Amino acid sequence: MNHYIKTKLPLLICLIIICFTGYAVAQMSPEIPIADYTFETIEVPGVDFLEVAASNEFGDYAGNTRSADGEKEVAFTLIDGVFTRHDFPDSQQTDFYALSNNGVAAGHYKDSDGLYHGVILENGELRQYDFPGATQTFIYGISDETGALSGNIVDEAGVTHAFSGDLIITFPGAVATYGDFVNAAGAVVGSYTDAEGMPHGYVRNPDGSFTTLDLPTSPNLQYLFVNTITDVGLIGFRAKAVDDILRSYIILPSGVLYEVQRPGSVITVVRNVNQDGSIIGFYDTADGRRYGFIGRPNPQANGEDLGNTFSMHLSKGLHMLSVPLKPTVHTTARSLAVKTGATTVITLDTENQAFIAWTPNAPDDGFPIEGAKGYILNLPQSRAIVFTGTAWTNQTQAPTAPALTPMIRGDRRVVQEAWAFVVSGYLEGLQQFNDYRVTVRNHRTNTVMETQVRSNYFAAATADLNYRSVIEPGDTLGVVVTDTQGNIVSKEFNFTVNAADLANAVLSVRLTDIGSPKQSLLLQNYPNPFNPETWIPYQLSEGSPVSVSIYDTTGKLVRTLQLGFQSAGFYNSPERAAYWDGRNALGEPVASGVYFYQLVTPSFQQTRRMLILK
Fold this sequence. Notes:
Blueprint: H1 10-26, E1 37-42, E2 50-55, E3 61-66, E4 73-79, E5 82-86, E6 93-99, E7 105-110, E8 116-122, E9 125-129, E10 136-142, E11 149-154, E12 160-164, E13 167-169, E14 176-182, E15 188-193, E16 199-204, E17 210-213, E18 221-229, E19 235-241, E20 246-251, E21 257-260, E22 267-273, E23 279-284, E24 290-297, E25 309-314, E26 317-321, H2 333-340, E27 344-349, E28 354-358, E29 375-379, E30 383-388, E31 420-427, E32 437-442, E33 448-452, E34 457-463, E35 476-482, E36 493-496, H3 499-504, E37 506-511, E38 521-522, E39 534-536, E40 538-540, E41 544-551, E42 557-566, E43 569-571, E44 578-580, E45 593-601, E46 604-612
Parallel strand pairs: 31-37
Antiparallel strand pairs: 1-24, 2-3, 3-4, 4-5, 6-7, 7-8, 8-9, 10-11, 11-12, 12-13, 14-15, 15-16, 16-17, 18-19, 19-20, 20-21, 22-23, 23-24, 25-30, 26-29, 27-28, 27-29, 31-34, 32-33, 32-35, 35-36, 38-40, 39-44, 40-43, 41-42, 41-45, 45-46
C-alpha cells in the first residue's frame, strides 16, 4: 500500500475531481469550515519529534524522527507497537513516506554529497533504489496491488518529473512535476509548477489525461500537493499560502471542502486518508514538539457521510465472508488478501464442487472476487477491515452450499477447529509443468485434495463447510505429481503438519526432481498381498534397458518381464509400472506364497519381496 489509500476507477476519479474543481471555483468562500474529527495522539515515550508520514491498513506507521543523539533526521517504523529507527549508512538524513500492508517501508536518503536516493526497508534490511537514468530519486509511495514505487526524479538536466513504476510523468507545459501516490486503477496524484511559478495539484488519469486541482481562495500559494484519494473519492491535500501556515484539507465525495485542524496545534499536516474516513498525519505544538495523530470522523453537522463503507472486525483464524460492497476496481484474491492480511483465500468452484485456493506467493492475482459468493480467509492476527464501494448489482445466484452464502462472520470465530487447509508451493525443474496435477493425501484420514499446476505453482485446498476439523498437528501428507497424461512423475513427498502450518492454514512446500529422479529405485508392488495380478513400480535416474525377474523362495527363476529401453523417469502408475499376472514362464498360475522380484539395468539392481494369496 502507498502511505495513502488506493483504489478508484478512472471515470470516477475524473468525475470527483471535476466536481471538486467546479465546487472550489463556484462556491468556496474564504471561510472554509473545520472538519469534525476526534483526534488521538500517536507518540513514543521519550521521543518528542514523531512525524508520522505513512500508515497501512493494519494500524502500523512509518515516518521520520531524530536520531538517538539528536544530531540528524532518521526514519522510523512503528509496527505492532514496536518503534525502530532506520538510518541509511553514511547518510545525512533518511526519511520514510510509504508503508505497505506487508511491512515494506520506503522513502529516500540524502548522501554525503547532498544527493537523494530512494531507500526501501524490506525484511529488516535497507537497500538503495535509483530510478534508471535519474540523478536523484525521491520515493513517496508503494502500491499494494502491484508493488510499484512512485515519487519524483531529477533528470540529468536538473528537471524534476514524477514517476510511477517505470513510467515518467511530466505535466504539459510544467516547469517541474512532482508525484506522490498511484492507485490500483493507475491514477497518479501530485503537483506541478507552471511557467509563472504557480503551484497546482493534479491527477494523471489512467488514460494519460490530466485534471488540475486548485485552491482559488488562496491565490498566493507557495505550494499545493494532493496526497491521497480513497476508494469512495475522499481527497486529502495540503497547501501553504504566502504569509500563512501550512494547512491541510479534505474534500468529501459530494465535493464539500473542509480544513483539518487539530485543536491546540500550531500546524496540522494530513498525510493519509484511510478507507473509513480517518486521517493520519502529524501536528506541532507551541513548544516545538511534533507528534503523530489519527483523526476519526464524527458525524457531520450537515448529515453528510464519507461515502459507502462497511467496517468489520475479523479475529485471528479462519473466517467465511462475502464482500459486502462492490469495489470500485476489479478485485481479485490477491487484493482481498492485501486488504485483510490473509494467508490464503479459498473459493468453491460450484460447477466442479472443488475448492480453489490462492496464497500470497502465487505468480498471479488469482480468481476474481464476486458478489453473493462466500470466501474462506485465514488471518494470522485480528484485523479491523473497512470495505468501500457500491451496492452489488446483477449478482450471480448464490451457491447452494450452506456456508457459501452471502454472509459475514467477521465479529467472531465460527469455531476453533482447523476446518480449511491449503498445501501450496512450486515444482522445481528445468521445464514448465503447466497443467500437471498435484494430489495430496492425508495418511490419517485418507482424504484427498487435488489441483492443477500453473506457472509451476499449485495450491490444493480442502475445507469442511460445517466447520469441522480437516487437519491436525502431526498429520502426514503425501504429495504426488502427475503429468498431462495422468502418469506419475514424482516420488511421493511426505510432509508433517505442525502448529505453525495450522496457524497459517497453509503448508508451504517445494517439490524437486519432477520427472527426473536423482536415483534409481525399485518400489513396493501394489496391491500386496495380491491375487492374481500386481503392479511393480520403479524409477530410473537415467535411460537404460530394464527387466524385472521374479523368483520363488528357493531362488528358482519363475518369470522375467522384459521391459525394453526405458527413459529416465517415474514408473509408478498402472499405465507405466511393470505388470505381472501371477503366471510363470509357461503361462501357468503360480501357487500362493512369498516371491521375490528384482529390477535389473546395466548399472542398477534391487530386490524386494511380495506375497500372493489365493
